[in-house]
Amino acid sequence: MTRALGWLAALGLLAGLAAGFGYAPREAVQGNVQRIMYLHVPSVLTAYLAFGLVLLGSIAFLATRRPGWDRLAGSAGEIGVVFTGLTIVSGSIWGKPTWGTWWTWDARLTSTAVLFLVYVGYLLLRGLIDEPEARARYAAVVGILGAVNIPIVHFSVKWWRALHQPSTILGPEPSPIDPAIGLALFVNWVTFTLLFAYFLSRRMEIARLEAET
Amino acid sequence: MMPANWGYVLAAYGIAAATLFGYWRRLVRRSRAAGARRPAAKARAA
Lengths: 213, 46
Fold this sequence. Notes:
The structure holds 2 protein chains of 2 kinds. Chain A has 7 helices and no strands. Chain A is mainly α. The two termini of chain A are about 25 Å apart. The mean pLDDT of chain A is about 95. Chain B is mostly helical. Helices cover about 85% and strands about 0% of the residues of chain B. Chain B has 1 helix and no strands. The model of chain B has no long low-confidence stretch (mean pLDDT about 85). The interface of A and B includes residues 79, 90, 203, 209 and 210 of A.
């Protein structure tokens, strides 16, 4: 199952590159630099998914005390940090030619940086506590509190004046994106979700093996 | 229309590729290490 997910993700990455660089047209205003979107948006959607699973695993662990839920939360948290890091770096690179700056303390950027730091702290906390039950309990509390940041990041562009553009997907209005660009984005989003599932499967297996030794 | 800016695009995708490949390699190494420790732990338990 894990191996099949890995191969599907690898094929998906090829399809995603073909969709983003071959199929999708050059964007009318930004030109080719807009193609960073096919990396940036799937990264943040994957991070939302990962941190949503941290929330689910944390609540389920506190309710059942089954270690498998803690392994899910810890594994998803680690992968979520990787994808949030990619979101911030790709967004910063995209920002330089379009906004004229690598970074600004805009509501979306700042809340995403806070999200990143909260889950880095979550991983540090997990690394600091040796006793598995206590580690899982404290991490679950942080995992639940940290999830408060997810809607703040997503709706920050609505709640505050922001340089970052409003959501063009996952918003209340129909998406204004050109269908070809939307399809390329969809292919890359599915690919990143497959890649996340593959990483999660491998990371949970490692956590299970490490718990046995 | 903005200039092509291919350098920024390549930088973003290059960093992403290096990060994802590096994370995958880390998972592979940890998986091998955890698998190698497991028989020893089982033997100790027995």
